């Protein structure tokens, strides 16, 4: 089978990405990341790449920049100087510095959020952060920041958007994947917008002016909601939990859905896995918002062995799981199981011998 030149040029350094990085799940038990030749796991501890937090901030920003480039959200990216057309994510960070009086000399308490919704006043951005679970707030050096990095790898794997990062694509499969990516960028990809109820889709300056007006106590007319007459306060409801969204609390809008719907910040989650959508990046399909991973899986099968989307029509399927033919192997001894007896236990493909040894 002829491989695409872009795939053949994958460097040894890419294949050995993150070698030796400690596992955050094993916490000292694993000697460091030892890449499997084709699975997205550590050979030493069997944990995933996310658990080793292999990516860097720069790599993450390049990945999201590539995802948003050539889409209607390309304004959230910037061209890298001398980068031969490469675009990088203009990630909005928020730094808060509060003085703390200690005797005669004040010190400063600085909190840095590795990501915050863009285009908001700091007051509204802080309010947004307060409305999401503490463990998901991406404050530098905390579990929340690690969770964000893990979500970026899990929800938006690089091999779902860049065919050169997939292993073994044929020329025809490479082209199919390019078309697949172009289509989801055009038809499904979105980035949530944060605003107060009734202010979704407004120019940012206008939204900020309305926020000032409300703070000053002046009435702001709205055109959507469930008011029975113009004198009643308009009521808004979360699309996910169906509970009311207070007029002074920020909500999330998805432009592909329409600005007559909104979500509480903690309710803007994937319809499949119910994980909060990292950096508000969503995919719209069949009346629901999805993370990138589960959107792609809803369109094409994902290999349970290598975790990549399958673009060949010749693959192995068992119930609701799929494998590339060459990856239909035992997870214990890696024996090719095509035409042999096998057992699927909790999503793991095993030969009878390895299955028996796991039970004993």
Automatic annotation (TrEMBL):
> Which residue intervals define the domain PET in the entry?
94-201
Chief location bin: cytoplasm
Domain of life the protein comes from = Eukaryota
One Pfam family from the record: PET
Keywords, in A-Z order:
Cytoplasm, LIM domain, Metal-binding, Nucleus, Phosphoprotein, Repeat, Repressor, Transcription, Transcription regulation, Zinc
**InterPro entries documented for this protein:** PET_domain (IPR010442), PET_testin (IPR033724), Pk/Esn/Tes (IPR047120), Znf_LIM (IPR001781)
Q: Name one GO molecular function term.
A: zinc ion binding
Occurrences of domain LIM zinc-binding (ranges): 236-301, 302-360
Q: A GO BP term, please?
A: positive regulation of calcineurin-NFAT signaling cascade
One GO term describing the cellular component: nucleus
Disordered: annotated segments: 195-228
| The keyword Transcription is annotated on this UniProt entry | yes
Q: Does the keyword Repressor apply?
A: yes
Amino acid composition bias (Basic and acidic residues), ranges on this chain:
203-214
As for subcellular location, the record says:
Cytoplasm; Nucleus
Give the function comment from the record: Transcriptional cofactor that restricts GATA6 function by inhibiting DNA-binding, resulting in repression of GATA6 transcriptional activation of downstream target genes. Represses GATA6-mediated trans activation of lung- and cardiac tissue-specific promoters. Inhibits DNA-binding by GATA4 and GATA1 to the cTNC promoter. Plays a critical role in the development of cardiac hypertrophy via activation of calcineurin/nuclear factor of activated T-cells signaling pathway.
Q: What is this protein called?
A: LIM and cysteine-rich domains protein 1
Can you name the source organism? Answer: Ornithorhynchus anatinus
Q: What gene makes this protein?
A: LMCD1
